[in-house]
Amino acid sequence: MVRSTAWLLGALLGLICVLPLVLMTPRTAQCTSLKTLENKLIGRRRNMKHNLPINYTIRVHYEEVFKLSNISRLRARVEDLEDGDLQDVWLLVNQEVLKRILRVLPVRHPSYKYTTDLEDLFRKVQQVFPPQTDEREPPERIEEIYKRVKEIDSKGWRFVTPKSLLDNCYRTMHCLFKDCFSSEDREQDCECTSFPYCTSSLPLPLNSALSN
Ligand SMILES: *[C@@H]1O[C@H](CO)[C@@H](O)[C@H](O)[C@H]1NC(C)=O
Ligand SMILES: *[C@@H]1O[C@H](CO)[C@@H](O)[C@H](O)[C@H]1NC(C)=O
After folding, report:
1. For this UniProt entry, which residues form the secretion signal (predicted)?
2. Quick one: 26-210 is in which CATH superfamily?
3. How far apart are CA 34 and CA 85, in angstroms?
4. Could you read off the pLDDT of 113-127 as tens digits, one per residue?
5. Domain ranges of the chain
6. Which residues form the pocket of ligand 2, taking CB atoms under 6 Å from any ligand atom?
7. 3-class secondary-structure state, position 137
8. What atom of ligand 1 comes closest to residue 54's alpha carbon?
9. Most exposed: 38, 64, 89, 166, by fewest CB within 10 Å?
10. Which residue is closest in CA terms to ligand 1's atom 3?
11. pLDDT tens-digit profile of 34-65?
12. How far is the centre of ligand 2, averaged over its atoms, from the C-alpha of 72 (Å)?
């Protein structure tokens, strides 16, 4: 009798210890990691604009410019596209973008640590989002993007400012992970039908002032 009570008590204690882990559902973990990333991205203006020479641009693949208009276009044109596919593209593209930014920053540059911190946060996000490819083949168009981003000798290069790349990252994040962000967090409408130019929910001059 005594022994079974002790066993029961032990089991109960064990349960109490495990419970918080069970309550931390995958969704909670995903949103926590994204919110941490969101907070860090708030510092992008100082780190990617003010700490860099005026109008400084870096060379990136066409595919590394991943904006809301791209999302709308892919949604409209690719059959069997799932949100998870777009989230995977977002993760890949932005990790490549960070690598490119780091390549031009000396270790002692004031934005270096900020950029490596972002890389770490991206890795954490990736850990809680199992890639779609574990379950099914992504659509061909998506596979093509993966391939092109990894190509070393690409024909399609563009010069863009690091700040605008991180702006894309920030805006698309709010639209691709709607479960984690409220609509007030968004700077722009997520559904953009007039691609290639998305109508902003803000008046245009105000919007361009914000993106500077
Ligand atoms: C930076 O770019 C803006 C807009 O394209 C331009 O008006 C400005 O003259 C440029 N500044 C320099 C220093 O090149
Ligand atoms: C996004 O659209 C631009 C053209 O507006 C294109 O060059 C780029 O490859 C697209 N990015 C992706 C990831 O599809």
Report:
1. 1-31
2. Interleukin-34 (1.20.1250.80)
3. 17
4. 999 999 999 999 999
5. 26-210
6. 62-63, 65-66, 70, 93, 145, 196
7. coil
8. 13
9. 38
10. 55
11. 999 999 999 999 999 999 999 999 999 999 99
12. 11
